[in-house]
């Protein structure tokens, strides 16, 4: 051990000594006073030591400040080796992130709590307090599963096109969705910048070989078979077990991304695997919530600090409006009324959500419509909920329509709001207290506010927000929607606007809960008879024109699942905003289409559809002339085979599908009914006998042709 400032440890043979030195020992760096930065491994001027006495690590200021867990001080900084990175990413304000036994990486300033809940998957443990982190993964040459891969859709809007790809994980984004300029050089997403890594028991989407993305769970080493553990793998690789098949593989961060609740990618092709992944995800979420609750109850005896204020505080250029007394409306109440301007009165100001002014209202101080000005709030208390952090509840019973509290905070403009949201994203702050006041002003109760800031969201709330005009200015109040007993949590609907895929799970537990904040609550529908739920895809996976996958754009017309390549549409640039595919316009005149080919984008309006579409012989669906099975070159000739056998005056036509169908009919009837299977079902109702033998349907008709067929030509039958 070096007795200098670095506190380094060395093997004697590694520093050129045959035996360990006696007495005080100083390493070369401590002797010369020139220390090396622990991040960039370069020495020189500007290298400073961590302020923790026994740390002994030296850094360039710019190098160490690139790590989000670094804590600057007046005289220096505290490096990230003294903070659990996983705990810091989850909650930067959590004091427990720097407590407990930490294991530190021997090559870079990364540390985790020495347990499976915090340690990054793929870490190589060297001793009780030291390990190699996944940042030191080195891909093997020629190994296809070590190649970095990115998804072909945006993580925000789920659309394809020109994407900005992260260099460390599969994430991809549109530059417009992130609202940033095109970066120069390598670019990393916010999760990778903060150091977020997969952990044990995480549910991930994994890309293995040329297979599609598949859900899997990161496994503990003790749960992995020995033959899998003996497989060659590098630092940074971790074992995962696929849902559905239960297979094990080794993978790493650049080929996985997190599974989110509600993911339904290719649900019709991987239904069992997705069902297992969803169930396992919910189990792990419950375990995580209970563990977090126990930790929070142990550590958080008080709610997070904030500054309590009684009235709104304007910030920057924002102004609080004050009306002249002559502009304040006067109600029609009388001073002699029993409850002037009360809840049960016919006060016109109360009906229009205007608060009376004591100098204007006839009732004066007896007026009961001055709750905002007099701050006549319901008595409430802050308490710790089971799974939703801190909440608010009433100390006594609250009647329907009662004024609970005003929502108070800093009044900011839209520019300041965007700046605060950007700061929260950069610092992994996930709690917001912003409420829209009007088109130019927002109330932010985060740094400053009153007790109303602790009221949680619910899809079936017992309170609501109302915007009242008080002394000429707009203010927001919380009112009871129903009679609320003592001790029941007070909630209101946040009415968030949900953008992209970045959804926050709702934990209100209401019967009509939508599952996510920003998604409308479910409606209660009385079902007399249970019907089998049919899962419909929101969009297709392959291009409707060529049938291949890749970077695709989807039609924005409601109910249309079609997707296309930009090249198949002959578009030089990827269409954005509200774009409708060519399937909805007539191929001839461009008007709105009324009939569609179900095998290609061809479609026609009412005027031009005559004679353009036919009934497919394969499945009875409409198709254009390019897919006409009666033509010389049908779309899939390998699936249709016709041959003639001499048997009385009958011809046998065999249509090969997933199930074989053979129909015996006369030659004249066969020519007239080449429209296919739909006509076979109709003819079974006519003269003749029908029976089933050997899994084949047979219909024997007499030589005489039904009179109904004589009135229609072959072309007419095909068109129908």
Question: Which structural traits does this protein have?
Answer:
720 residues; alpha+beta; 5-stranded antiparallel β-sheet; 5-stranded mixed β-sheet; 14 helices; globular; disordered C terminus; nucleus; zinc ion binding
Strand percent estimate: 15-25%
Sum up the overall morphology in one term.
Answer: globular
Number of E-state strands = 38
What is the helix tally? 14
Radius of gyration: 35 Å
Structural class: alpha+beta
Protein name: Nuclear receptor binding SET domain protein 1a
Domain Post-SET: 502-518
Subcellular location: Chromosome; Nucleus
Domain SET: 378-495
Describe this structure in words.
It is found in: Chromosome; Nucleus. This is Nuclear receptor binding SET domain protein 1a. InterPro entries: AWS_dom, C5HCH, NSD_PHD, NSD_PHD-1st, PHDvar_NSD, Post-SET_dom, PWWP_dom, SET2_Histone-Lys_MeTrsfase. The chain has 720 residues and is an alpha+beta fold. The protein has 14 helices and 38 strands. The protein has a 5-stranded antiparallel β-sheet, covered by helices on one side. Strands 16, 17, 21, 22 and 23 form a 5-stranded mixed β-sheet that branches. The radius of gyration is 35 Å and the shape is globular. The C terminus is likely disordered.
